[in-house]
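Our platform keeps sequence and structure together, in a single record for each protein. Such a record has a labelled line for the sequence and another for the backbone structure tokens. The tokens are whole numbers drawn from a learned vocabulary of local backbone shapes. The remainder of this section carries one protein's record, kept here as part of the documentation:
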Amino acid sequence: MLKNRENYEIMTPESIGLNQIQLNLTSRSGRAAVKHRMEEMGYKESDYNMDHLYTAFLKLADKKGQVFDYDLEALVFINKQQEEPEFYRLDNFSVQSGSNITATASVNLASGDEVKTEAATGNGPVDAVYQAINRITGYQIELVKYQLTAKGHGRDALGQVDIVVSFNGRRFHGVGLATDIVESSAKAMVHVLNSIWRSKQVEIEKQRLQTEKQNNQETV
């Protein structure tokens, strides 16, 4: 599949001004696909243990469904990412909205051991919640895609929200599931926040290893 892009591209990346199309990996992706993606991100095979990476990748893919670039990096630099506790956790929130009033949301968000509270207005209850969350984190997040899918039937049906956001030139995917649409939307954003936080930890670890390598070379 990777050798013949006509299998998965309806147009060339160049025809729409892109250098390449990034594929999201799933549990059906083989070792060659994972290795190929790592190479496209600039990693050499000597930078990581392929056996360990692929084993961890399969576990994460079974759990998440799709594995993104930042997930692969986290699996390389942060062991057992899928077993780590979440840094950001949604404590609670409240929303006030109506046809003749501006939507307002108050959010309590746990960041590590600290719980922070912010309120904000927005263009609807979901936007108000997102604005409040952005105030807490200070992240400049741009919502690129928002999709709502019903899971089940009747009044107890779950609403699954899938979002894609842009942050510092990278895209992050989040999923939330709840009977309340606003709650599932908030959970999807918290999912994104934890992915962003992990990517920051990856950068810190990469810099630490690079500094350690340079120090060792200077010593030699």
Summary: The helical segments are 31-40, 50-64, 69-77, 125-137, 181-219. Strands lie at 25-26, 66-67, 88-98, 101-111, 114-122, 142-151, 158-167, 170-178. The first helix runs from residue 31 to 40. The two ends are 45 Å apart (CA to CA).
